[in-house]
Amino acid sequence: MGCIFCSIAAGEIPASIVYASDRVVAFNDIDPQAPVHIIVIPREHHPSIDALAQTDAGLAAELLQVAAGLGAAHHGGYRLVLNTGPDGGQSVDHVHAHVLAGRGLGWPPG
Ligand code: 5GP
Ligand code: ZN
């Protein structure tokens, strides 16, 4: 089975790209949960943030830096989410940060 986020990073399937560098890509979520809902991924496939943090902490930091930069562009604040594992609600096994903004976000999350 192919990885959908690897396919997006490779340009093999379309996405609304909002940021791209040689290492990181960001695109609008296909099913937005807030007025701003961006997915930020490393181009390289890593299954989760704990896998990435252990193998390439520099890339994990870059992912966070890009996500924070995209969030900070919006007045009123933002939320970064990295769903990890089944209980964490991770549905795509390619590490990704959600950037959510544009409305008041409830706490705690579901
Ligand atoms: P997770 O549930 O793993 O934390 O987040 C996966 C996110 O990827 C979901 O919010 C889902 O809507 C989004 N997503 C899944 N498939 C696609 C796709 O093909 N294109 C885009 N743009 N987003 C996707
Ligand atoms: Zn992948």
Write a structural description.
The protein has one domain (4-101): HIT family, subunit A (2-Layer Sandwich), CATH 3.30.428. It contains four helices and five strands. The protein has helices at residues 4-9, 49-55, 57-72, 85-88, and strands spanning 17-20, 24-28, 36-42, 78-81, 97-101. The protein is globular, with a radius of gyration of 13 Å. The chain starts with a helix and ends in a 9-residue tail after the last strand. The model has no long low-confidence stretch (mean pLDDT 97).
Ordered list of secondary-structure elements with their pairings:
Blueprint (H helix, E strand, L loop, with lengths): L3 H6 L7 E4 L3 E5 L7 E7 L6 H7 L1 H16 L5 E4 L3 H4 L8 E5 L9
Antiparallel strand pairs: 1-2, 2-3, 3-5, 4-5
The chain binds guanosine-5'-monophosphate and zinc ion (ZN).
| Sheet having the most strands | 5 strands, antiparallel
Identify the CATH class.
Answer: Alpha Beta
Total E-strand runs: 5
Name the ligand types: guanosine-5'-monophosphate, zinc ion
What amount of the residues lies in strands? 15-25%
Which architecture name does CATH use?
2-Layer Sandwich
Morphology = globular
Q: How many separate structural domains?
A: 1
Which topology does CATH recognise?
Answer: HIT family, subunit A
CATH homologous superfamily label:
HIT-like
- Poorly predicted regions: none
Give, in spatial order, the strands making up the sheet with the most strands: 1-2-3-5-4
> How far is it from the N-terminal to the C-terminal residue, by CA?
29 Å
Q: Which oligomeric state applies?
A: single chain
Question: What is the percent of helical residues?
Answer: 25-40%
Our Rg estimate from Cα atoms comes to 13 Å
Topology as H/E string? HEEEHHEHE
- Taking all residues together, what is the mean pLDDT? 97
